[in-house]
Design brief:
This protein has 11 helices and 7 strands. By secondary structure, the chain is α+β, with helices and mostly antiparallel strands. β2 and β3 form a beta hairpin. It is elongated, with a radius of gyration of 20 Å. Bound molecules: zinc ion. Zinc ion binds next to loops.
């Protein structure tokens, strides 16, 4: 999934309704916002764009800006649409991509490396971006390789911490595919570390989630990590 594709996706595609299962398992967001009455809000599936706009105006005023000056006039609406896109994963059910599988007597490693993503740190609402590497050992059924990238892309579009994102992806693959082993390694640079606070540009954070055979078998884990890191 290239960054270009991400920025080109429009809101109506990116923002999907919660399905029933998701509402029940608590992965979703709060139910439709109270003020969602405008045509725009209906089009973006209940993301309360108006509420975001007024919050952005409030922030601009609070930092000493004039939200009515020319350059800032369209900023609140633009930011509202951006958040609807960045958080579209809250209203999606990424597991659905893994529900189409093909019977295949292949029970060796399937690894997709270097899946680019951009997510949002829930502590600062600043982006963290990087690459995910996803591997599994099938048990009689495989999924399309691009589906693994779609899962990463959708899970990324939520406010979260990298640790939880990594685990969520692993749990989805283990749960939906019934894979005997799953490994997810995520490496990312966090804006909240590079542009503010400690200001360490270029540092990367690596997290991993191992399931099944990759968790319990030391040599399988060593093998998958060397495949992921390419040596
Ligand atoms: Zn942060």
């Amino acid at each position: 999934m290239s960054i270009a594709e991400i920025t080109m996706s429009n809101n109506s595609q990116a923002v999907r309704p919660l399905n029933e299962a998701e509402s029940q398992n608590g992965n979703g967001v709060d139910r439709p916002p109270k003020h969602a009455t405008s045509q725009q809000n209906r089009e973006s599936n209940e993301v309360d764009l108006r509420a975001i706009e007024s919050a952005v105006k409030t922030i601009l005023k609070a930092v000493g800006e004039d939200p009515e000056r020319d350059g800032l006039l369209d900023t609140p609406a633009r930011v509202a649409r951006m958040y609807a896109e960045m958080f579209s994963g809250l209203r999606a059910n990424p597991g659905r991509h893994l529900q189409v599988t093909f019977p295949e007597e292949y029970n060796e490693v399937v690894l997709v490396r270097d899946i680019e993503f951009c997510s949002m740190c829930e502590h600062h609402l600043l982006p963290f971006r990087g690459k995910a590497h996803v591997a599994y050992i099938p048990e009689g059924r495989v999924t399309g390789l691009s589906k693994l990238a779609r899962v990463v892309e959708e899970v990324a579009r939520r406010p979260q911490v990298q640790e939880r994102m990594t685990q969520t992806i692993a749990d989805l693959i283990e749960g939906e595919l019934g894979a005997t082993a799953v490994a997810v390694v995520v490496e990312a640079e966090h804006s909240c570390m590079s542009i503010r606070g400690i200001r360490k540009a270029g540092s990367s954070t690596i997290t991993s989630a191992m399931r099944g055979g990759f968790r319990h078998n030391v040599s399988s884990r060593a093998e998958i990590l060397s495949l992921i890191h390419g040596h």
